Amino acid sequence: MALPAFAQQGFVKVEGTRFTIDGKPYRYIGTNYWYGGLLATNGEQGKERLKTELNFLKQHGVTNLRVMVGAEGLTDYKYRTPNEKVLEPEAGKFNEDIMTGLDYLLNELAKRNMKAVLHFTNTWEWSGGIAQYLKWNGYGEQPYPKSLGGYYSWDKLRQYISQFYICKPCMDELDTYIKYVLHRTNKLNGKKYTDDPAIMAWEIINEPRPMEKLAVPAFEAWMSHVSALVKSIDKNHLLTTGSEGDIASDFDLSVYQKIHADKNIDYLTIHIWPKNWSWFKDTAINASYKVILDSAGKDIQKHLQVAKQMNKPMVIEEFGLPRDLHVYTPGTSTHNRDHFYNFIFSKVLNNPGIAGCNFWAFAGIARPIPGQTFWKDGDEFMGDPGGEEQGLNSVFDSDESTWKVIEKYTRQLK
């Protein structure tokens, strides 16, 4: 597909509760494409897949992609990003090949007037995340989910992760990583990352959580520190938190309010996960559907009210629902998901304070392997990270009914 000549759009700005580009309102239906920066590291085949998928998204009006910058740490934990795809294999040492993959993605986005929201690190283990810095600094092995021997529990994980916010060497090492990324110049087009309009925003971390109540003050201080660090280097791009909402602080809304009230945070984020948050059990999506919609509506309204009080935009940057009957196979029914997407998109359309949304997640042309539930080395990346059932929340290019819903709203938001 030949791309036409174009004048690249400018930087996304905030004016009250809305985004603008070049003085014009900017609202969007976007997607999560966490592995987007990794595809070009798979040679010409990966580059062709990336271009095919970006063209598909552009054709359907999806031009805002939420992407992981890079994974941290080497590990034998099989549900994690594979070791050869890790940006930071050791503290302070970086894999140039992974950054050239991100260079390639940003260059292709610029050609299509598409935007990326880039998150630096992660609360969760599937990309290393902040637990990796604890491991590097002598705090022992993280209690991984799905580990054998009964070592894992939610309480053990919370206790472990909460230590990050009082580990100064850990926080210093993450600062080094963030500065490394922000000071980069794209090798393909010569643009400094801080000068690249293909980047809409930076995110401090995917789904920040203090994990324990005692850690809240240190957590809030760390979020403020990182936001100031990013803005001290990059004056052009927006910055946000990556927060799920008040569920991340055991429904203490004041924590959510404080981290988003920071002068360096430009907009608010929320995530909506009916399955993870037990709004339905097992495969009972149909039976619990009213509960799902009622709960989602209340969650959106609660956080939107905070955004309005702060006079900042809000983005619903993650939301997903399994396929009907909880199967993973492309071609099976997505009736409930389509209806749920329609519900979320209508909230965006009818509430100007919601500036955009990113559904989870685009799987493109990849497909689950029959008879295999979880990702393994050598498999194609798709919307579900390695620790999740492959195809669980993925939207494939072949999901025609879902794309009809998506395209209906991308047209209206134009």
List the helices and strands and how they pair.
Elements (H helix, E strand, L loop, with lengths): L11 E4 L2 E4 L2 E3 L1 E5 L10 H17 L4 E5 L2 E2 L13 E3 L7 H16 L3 E8 L6 H8 L17 H9 L5 H15 L16 E8 L9 H18 L4 E3 L12 H9 L6 E5 L16 H22 L3 E6 L15 H16 L3 E6 L2 E3 L30 E2 L3 H14 L1
Parallel strand pairs: 4-5, 4-13, 5-8, 6-7, 8-9, 9-10, 11-12, 12-13, 14-15
Antiparallel strand pairs: 1-2, 2-3
What distinguishing features does this structure have?
414 residues, alpha/beta, TIM Barrel, 8-stranded parallel sheet, 3-stranded antiparallel sheet, 10 helices, 15 strands, 35% helix
Describe this entry's structure for a reader.
With 414 residues, the chain is an alpha/beta fold. It has one domain (20-413): TIM Barrel (Alpha-Beta Barrel), CATH 3.20.20. It is 35% helix and 16% strand. The chain has 10 helices and 15 strands. Strand 4 (28-32), helix 1 and strand 5 form a beta-alpha-beta unit. Helix 3 (129-136) packs across helix 5. The relative contact order is 0.13.
